[in-house]
């Protein structure tokens, strides 16, 4: 009703103005019968009121739809036009909606095609990396070791691209099962043994063997790999240690990963999980991409886990995953 009255305000104002003007013209012509003038005003007002009531009743659903918040972009389709104006607007909205869906489908197909190309490209790149790794795995000279280290970096970079591309289609690649937490952590640390050797960092596990979690092993392994890589990268201390602890608290299983690295400045802590944020440490260590912690948080969120981070600059960082 408020919207209707606001729209009809000019009509009502013009009506009263023309009523005054016509009455004044008759008064100037010498017509002084007040009772007849008031009767004419009453009849005219009744006609205006009838017009406004008719206008409101025929446009009521239209005004109601304009006033209600839209829950989805296709919400207007349930409106039944009852007047030429609402019918014309309804046709326009339907036409725009079809154009929108057409453009949206076109962009969706492009994105899906791009993601498919990225996935195929990553898998193609993994083949020569595996072949090169097989060619040098029996060699122990410094040159071969350096090549192996660079292959590890390449493999991790490709994995990050692959998992980033798959993140939007997470539900299509999800297999949830009950896992022994200690075995998952030991498998992740064993896979990263070359990284530990290169960084001169030693993993220390303090975990109860009977702790179990419900998660997706592949996605969780990627999260642990990112956390381990960050911990080793930012540990400059000779013979530093990376501690893995797990316990149950308040009905939850908590995995804690603590390093002896350089820590994170307090000003950077609120943005650690933002995409592409590298911070002060990222500028000192050129390998940082700013995507590792972002992906870890997104994957944990999709898996139903929580991830927390505490850090003291110069002393180290603690990351907790709450299952």
Layout: helices, strands, pairs:
Layout: H1 2-28, H2 34-67, H3 84-136, H4 142-166, E1 177-180, H5 181-191, H6 193-199, E2 201-206, E3 212-215, H7 217-233, E4 240-249, E5 252-258, H8 279-284, H9 292-303, E6 306-312, E7 316-322
Parallel strand pairs: 2-4
Antiparallel strand pairs: 1-3, 4-5, 5-7, 6-7
Short structural summary:
This protein has 323 residues and is of the alpha+beta class. 59% of the residues lie in helices and 14% in strands.
In words, what does this structure look like?
The chain is an alpha+beta fold and 323 residues long. It is 59% helix and 14% strand. β4 and β5 form a beta hairpin. α1 runs antiparallel to α2 and α3 packs antiparallel against α4.
The first-to-last residue Cα distance is 53 Å
The helix content, as a percent range, equals 55-70%
Structural class: alpha+beta
CATH superfamily of the largest domain: Histidine kinase-like ATPase, C-terminal domain
Low-pLDDT runs: none
**Which word captures the global form?**
elongated
CATH architecture of the largest domain: 2-Layer Sandwich
Enumerate how many helices there are, as a single number. Answer: 9
Biggest sheet, spatial arrangement of strands: 2-4-5-7-6
Strand proportion, as a percent range, falls in: 5-15%
Domain Histidine kinase: 120-323
Keywords: ATP-binding, Cell membrane, Kinase, Membrane, Nucleotide-binding, Transferase, Transmembrane, Transmembrane helix, Two-component regulatory system
EC number: 2.7.13.3
Membrane topology: Multi-pass membrane protein
């Amino acid at each position: 009703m408020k919207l209707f009255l606001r729209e009809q305000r000019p009509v009502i104002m013009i009506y009263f103005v023309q009523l005054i003007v016509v009455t004044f013209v008759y008064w100037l012509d010498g017509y002084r019968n007040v009772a007849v003038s008031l009767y004419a005003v009453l009849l005219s007002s009744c006609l205006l009121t009838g017009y406004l009531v008719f206008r409101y009743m025929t446009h009521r659903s239209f005004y109601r739809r304009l006033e209600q918040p839209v829950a989805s972009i296709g919400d207007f389709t349930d409106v039944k036009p009852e007047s030429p104006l609402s019918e014309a607007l309804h046709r326009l909205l339907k036409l725009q909606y079809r154009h929108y869906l057409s453009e949206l489908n076109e962009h969706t197909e492009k994105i899906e095609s791009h993601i498919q190309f990225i996935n195929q490209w990553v898998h193609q790149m993994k083949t020569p990396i595996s072949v090169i790794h097989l060619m040098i795995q029996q060699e122990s000279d410094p040159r071969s070791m350096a090549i192996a280290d660079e292959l590890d970096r390449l493999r991790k970079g490709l994995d990050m691209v692959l998992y980033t591309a798959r993140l939007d289609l997470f539900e299509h690649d999800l297999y949830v099962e009950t896992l022994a937490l200690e075995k998952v952590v030991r498998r992740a640390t064993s896979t990263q043994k070359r990284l530990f050797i290169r960084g001169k960092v030693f993993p220390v596990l303090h975990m109860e063997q009977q702790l179990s979690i419900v998660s997706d092993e592949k996605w969780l392994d990627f999260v642990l790999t990112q956390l381990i890589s960050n911990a080793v990268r930012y540990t400059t201390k000779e013979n530093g240690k990376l501690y893995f602890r797990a316990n149950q608290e308040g009905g939850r299983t908590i995995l804690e990963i603590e390093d002896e690295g350089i820590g994170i400045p307090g000003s950077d802590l609120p943005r650690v999980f933002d995409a592409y944020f590298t911070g002060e440490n990222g500028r000192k260590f050129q390998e940082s991409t700013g995507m590792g912690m972002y992906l870890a948080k997104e994957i944990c969120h999709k898996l139903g886990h929580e991830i927390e981070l505490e850090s003291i600059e110069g002393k180290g960082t603690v990351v907790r995953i709450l299952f």
